[in-house]
Design a protein that fits this description.
With 324 residues, the protein is an alpha/beta fold. It has 3 domains: 1-60, no CATH class; 61-189, Spore Coat Polysaccharide Biosynthesis Protein SpsA, Chain A (Alpha-Beta Complex); 228-322, Hexapeptide repeat proteins (UDP N-Acetylglucosamine Acyltransferase, domain 1), CATH 2.160.10.10. Helices cover 24% and strands 27% of the residues. The strands form 6 sheets. Strands 3, 5, 6, 7, 8 and 9 form a 6-stranded mixed β-sheet that branches. Helix 1 (9-15) links the parallel strand 1 (2-3) and strand 2. Helix 3 runs antiparallel to helix 5 (144-157). The longest helix is centred in the middle third of the chain and has 14 residues, at 144-157. The two termini are 39 Å apart.
């Protein structure tokens, strides 16, 4: 795993002992690298991909999976591997056919030339982007021996980026096969995209496709009491984590563990994160409220569907917040 410096705690909090991913056996190991280390080695004139190459050589694995954390999707890698093995190619790219609005300028559009050879182009460079294009989901299965050679070649040429990005830049030379993913996918490109991806989980088909398919999704376990709904509370089309206390009205929202929603409150079309307190008479609409926030009595927080309000983690909100 390659992280940005100082951004590992929450990931390891969810991984825990790693049992669900087979990381707790004698023959399994997890290696963590900091992206900044590669940059420093390059600046010092040292072989900056050496750690990755050593890892690949010692793994003795015939195939390697490369994934980024930008897209939300539940991909069956065993199915991708079968396509890769059948293709006889050295790399297979996972892509999904989407409409043009689903692209960010820096996303990779996968196209094919007249010989059905796949190549990648940054969406921002295209003026003819249509409503039926393949979006690269930054997931690849490659032959490990080839990947070692590719790392060495990039290092020799002085090309520096994430391995995922370098593969996308060189797709035409690589000549990959393509695996078309047809399940639920969200592309997190902005705060609004993050908000929309969460709100989309209120649609049962999206929720089931992502979390309850053949591939289970694991998260950290926290045993606590179920959420309590007071007699005068009312909830519609919403999801709640455990340990909440709800005395007000909640509509079209996702509420995380340990949240307290007092009487005479209205929470509408919002994301409420862990251990938030919304006090009596407050109203929250089109908002993303981070962890451990306190919203004082009678406070109104309201954004719009296209521009949700974001309340910073640990804030105490004592005055109205409006965002157009």
């Amino acid at each position: 795993m390659v992280f940005n410096q100082g951004e590992t705690q929450s990931v390891f909090d969810h991984i825990g002992g790693g049992k669900e991913w087979g990381l707790d056996s004698l023959s399994s190991h997890m290696f963590v690298y900091m992206a900044q280390d590669f940059e420093q080695r390059k600046e010092a004139g040292l072989p900056y991909f050496e750690q990755q190459i050593n890892f690949l050589r010692k793994s003795n694995a015939p195939y390697t999976v490369l994934m980024s954390s930008k897209f939300i999707a539940n991909i069956d890698l065993s199915a991708v591997l079968r396509i890769h093995q059948q293709s006889g190619k050295k790399a297979t790219v996972v892509a999904k056919k989407v409409e043009s609005y689903a692209f960010n300028d820096f996303d990779t559009v996968i196209r094919a030339d007249e010989n059905n050879r796949y190549y990648g182009v940054e969406a921002g460079e295209l003026t003819d982007l249509t409503n039926s294009e393949y979006l690269a989901l930054n997931t690849f299965i490659v032959d490990t021996d080839w990947l070692i050679s590719f790392c060495e070649e990039m290092q020799e040429k002085g090309e520096f980026s994430s391995m995922n990005h370098l593969i996308r830049e060189h797709l035409w030379e690589i000549d990959p096969s393509l695996y078309e993913f047809t399940g639920y996918m969200s592309n997190i490109t902005s705060i609004k995209a993050y908000y929309d991806a969460n709100i989309a989980m209120l649609e049962p088909s999206n929720f089931t496709s992502l979390l309850y398919g053949r591939q289970p999704v694991y998260t950290k376990i926290k045993n606590e009491v179920p959420t309590y709904f007071a007699e005068n509370s009312w909830a519609h089309n919403s999801q709640f984590g455990s340990g909440c206390r709800v005395e007000g009205v909640v509509i079209d929202s996702l509420v995380s563990r340990g949240t307290k929603i007092a009487s005479d409150t209205i929470v509408d079309k919002s994301l409420i994160f862990t251990n938030t307190q919304i006090k009596q008479g407050a109203q929250v609409k089109y908002a993303i409220v981070d962890k451990n926030v306190v919203i004082e009595e009678g406070v109104h927080i309201e954004g719009t569907q296209n521009n949700p309000v974001v309340i910073k983690k640990g804030s105490v909100v004592s005055a109205d917040v409006y965002q157009n």
